[in-house]
Design a protein that fits this description.
The complex is a heterodimer. Chain A is mainly beta. Chain A has no helices and eleven strands. By secondary structure, chain B is mostly beta strands. In chain B, strands 2, 4, 5, 6, 9, 10 and 11 form a seven-stranded mixed beta sheet that branches. In chain B, strands 1-3-8-7 form a four-stranded antiparallel beta sheet, with no helix packed on it. The chains are: A mainly beta, B mainly beta. The interface between A and B is medium-sized, with 21 and 23 residues.
């Protein structure tokens, strides 16, 4: 079983929609959770970082960790065409990072 | 802001050449990583380093070596480039808990 699983999509939504991106993970001991945004032919950019459980909000983005079901989510409100990118979830544990395969998001004008 | 700089955005090299990819970070992070990213395979760890002159093999170290002589610089070396090493190479640095990536080097081996 992989440490983190992510639906690759692609996901296509109209501008202004609420987007929900999700990952599941295998080890209940994981504590550090991240979301990255990666534009085509660029490196991943750290978008959200959460320690332990709960919600974290930054502008139109909300990261949520549900440790009871080992589920992490990224919500994007009022999505914009500039949000079109691949989003990767990631987990850190003892000097190692585990990355989801990425979900490709397309926001149509 | 953390800055991780990779020496080249695009490289084209010939089969058999020795290739050096350089990465520099400006935040005094202990940990540095080299990944390659291929469609359908995601990010795969090649090597990482948790201190100067220290290195550990990742999941796919074959055909690669690394060097970390100074804390801020982590180099990836392809000893004899092959076409199956054509890929996007990503360097990252980390203080622990989160990683910061460079802009990536798209390497094509012909």
């Amino acid at each position: 079983q992989k440490e983190v699983e992510q639906d690759p999509g692609p996901l296509s939504v109209p501008e202004g929609a609420i987007v929900s991106l999700n990952c599941t993970y295998s080890n209940s001991a994981f504590q550090y959770f991240m979301w990255y945004r990666q534009y085509s032919r660029k490196g991943p950019e750290l978008l959200m970082y959460t320690y332990s459980s709960g919600n974290k909000e930054d502008g139109r983005f909300t990261a949520q960790v549900d440790k009871s079901s080992k589920y992490i989510s990224l919500f994007i409100r009022d999505s914009q065409p500039s949000d079109s990118a691949t989003y990767l979830c990631a987990i850190y544990n003892f000097n190692k990072f585990y990355f989801g395969s990425g979900t490709k998001l397309n926001v149509k004008p | 802001d953390v800055k991780v700089t990779q020496s080249s955005r695009y490289l084209v090299k010939r089969t058999g050449e020795k290739v050096f990819l350089e990465c520099v970070q400006d935040m005094d992070h202990e940990n540095m990583f080299w990944y390659r990213q291929d469609p359908g395979l995601g990010l795969r760890l090649i090597y990482f380093s948790y201190d100067v002159k220290m290195k550990e093999k990742g999941d796919i170290p074959e055909g690669y070596s690394v060097s970390r002589e100074k804390k801020e610089r982590f180099s990836l070396i392809l000893e004899s480039a092959s076409t199956n090493q054509t890929s996007m190479y990503l360097c990252a640095s980390s203080p622990g808990g989160k990683a910061f990536f460079g802009q990536g080097t798209r390497l094509t081996v012909v």
